[in-house]
Amino acid sequence: MKLSYQAFTRDGEIVSGLVDASSEREAQRVLESQGISPFEFAPARTQSSASRRRLRSEDIIQALDEFCTLLESEVGIAEAVDALQQGEYHPRVNGFFAHVGSQLQSGESLSGAIKSGELALPPVVLQLVETGEATGALAASLREAVDQLQYAESVRDEFRSALIYPAILVFSGIGAIVLIFAFVVPKFANLVQGNDDMPLLADLVINGGLWFNQNWYFLVAAFGGLTVLLVSRLRDAGFRDRLLNFAARLPVVGDWLHERDIGNWASSMAALLNNRVELVSALALSRNSVQLEVRRQRLNRVEQAVRGGDSLSDALRENMVLSPTAYNLVRVGEKTGRLPQMMRSVSNICEKARKSRTTQVLALIEPAAILIIGAVIGVMILGVILAITSVNDIAF
């Protein structure tokens, strides 16, 4: 079980935190082995049902942002970690900071404590924390890391938001089609029974509606099974990579994905280089921010070329990683010693291009969805009309 405690350090300071132990006596032995003397124990606060939800990236970013704010306010690392582990965060975030606090008290560095924690932070964040400790600018380095995480999250949020309206449009259209099949088409079935001279389209629509009503449970089960299969496949990183690589070859959407990848990579490079991470290490770390396999392979060749003595701009151009404008910015940055600033400019250019491309993608998706759904509904209504007119022809 988890127990919250208050204790004295060797310097006489009062600290508090959480400890895993089966009893207070065991908890006391654990804490005393870390050089602190507990004087009060209490059961850890039970988390509400809302806090038992899945850990999201926003939870981690919020906690790291507050950690960074405390360090920028010149609060000590141990005090900042202690404040965070008592905060109202996701249980895994609280547990992570409790672990970090425990490791710090046992003499571990902040970067080492973070690496051994349960939260899977991006390598860029770990490298920036390590660099900040080495240079004495931990708050500034951590702020760069938080900004990088927030940038990546904003890109994901923009993509999700962009798909909301098309998704609503598509599902509304599917719902309208289902309603027509379920309630409208069967009403006309009795009128056309025994009519062998119905046009093919009318026959398909009427019989399709009847089949739908007789087998709706099978269709619901099939739809549910496909949904479960798709969700499980999307949780597989390999499947997501293959899906992204396929989408990257499509017109317009592919350009959007490539610009997003370049923007993420340039932003990561700017953050790392601005914190004095050496170029080769920055290339290796920033490659993790790229999602498309083809670009990861190209960046791997760029890293090898730079290790071999080539300039970054030449290696990027030879492997066709960036746009012509971006190559010029990188070349200028190398010559003037302002490569981090130029990488930030590349990221800003890609950000503007990506937003413009998002507008283009939506401009294509929305009318395409309307046309397809409208065409399907129109065909169904036309089939019903043809069935009715065929009955009238027989009557006369």
What topology emerges from the helices and strands here?
Layout: E1 2-8, E2 14-20, H1 24-33, E3 37-43, H2 57-72, H3 77-85, H4 91-105, H5 110-115, H6 123-135, H7 138-184, H8 189-192, H9 200-214, H10 216-234, H11 237-247, H12 253-274, H13 279-286, H14 293-307, H15 312-318, H16 324-336, H17 339-395
Antiparallel strand pairs: 1-2, 1-3
Characterise this structure.
This protein is mainly alpha-helical and 396 residues long. It folds into three domains: 46 residues; 66 residues, no CATH class; 275 residues, no CATH class. 72% of the residues lie in helices and 5% in strands. It contains 17 helices and three strands. It has a three-stranded antiparallel beta sheet. β1 and β2 form a beta hairpin. α7 crosses α9. The chain is flat. The chain starts with a strand and ends with a helix.
Terminal-residue CA separation:
85 Å
Order of helices and strands: EEHEHHHHHHHHHHHHHHHH
Strand order of the largest sheet: 2-1-3
The helicity comes to over 70%
Total helices: the number is 17
Helix and strand content put the structural class at mainly alpha
| Poorly predicted parts | 47-51
Key words describing this protein structure:
single chain; 396 residues; mainly alpha; 3 domains; 3-stranded antiparallel beta sheet; 3 strands; 72% helix; 5% strand
Would you summarize the structure shown here?
With 396 residues, the protein is mainly α.
